[in-house]
Amino acid sequence: MESLASTTLYLAIAACAVATMAYWAHTLGLGLVVRRLATPIGEGPAVASIERSDDNGWARNTGRFATFATWSALALLSVSLVARWQAVDHAPWSNMYEFTIAFAMAIAAFYAVFEQVYVARQGTGDSARGMRSPRALGSVALPVVLTGLVVAALYFPSDVRPLVPALQNTDLLAIHVAAMILAYAALSVSFASGVLYLVQGAKNRFQRLPRAKLLDEIGYKSVAVGFPLLAGGIALGAYWANSAWGRYWGWDPKESAALLTLLIYGVYLHMRGLRKWSGTRSSAVLVIGFGAVLFTYFVVNLWISGLHSYAGV
What we know:
Elements lengths: L1 H27 L1 E10 L2 E11 L5 H31 L7 H27 L15 H18 L14 H31 L11 H34 L7 H22 L5 H24 L10
Antiparallel strand pairs: 1-2
């Protein structure tokens, strides 16, 4: 099972790489064109080139192909996750290697669902020409997924190790960490929308990017999903901490960083609801919030010692 988990992981990395390139081609309106060179005696050799056009079927086709590659990567990662679960005999997110793969998979899953919803909602019109397509979010989200998978495969040990005593409550391990993974993944979609909003601007600078209003909406809805998941995950963590260490909260670096992340997104929701913040200011908060997610996950786990130091590196 461990071998199957590794093999499908590498296949998923390849699928994510293809999806990333296809999303960028879709967003930029790029396509492969093959032409034959003219010579004095007739047609010459065929030459391929990458070209851009604002009104063609390339972007639509590359967008669909990118979606197919994303779902293929998700299928492969699902097989890898199940195989790893069988190999380690507990939820496969007990160290940095396992958590990073599960996190990347969850980002891809949330992105794919958001894409499906908003592409279906957009219908025809600009999308028929590959314009204003919600799939442009994939040009930000899929590189994050690909980076996570590559980092896991190259830098984190994949060997199976026994659980440390504090993690041996396998039920809470499965539920608490899964809640945090899903929360961070949903918030990753808000990061993608925030980045594209800052690029697009309120005046809709670029024809190929989704309208600013749509990006703002996607950012808000992804936080509306991720925020309660994050709050629930932190509450479950406090319950587990009481069982493992005899206290609900001890201002451990991981606990403090997770709480700070929750507060940042709480500020986002508060300012949007009461002060009617939207647009550039809200998008900037979404980018900062995702920076806090990465700090909580990578920096605290790898470089700041605490009771949550289970990186396995």
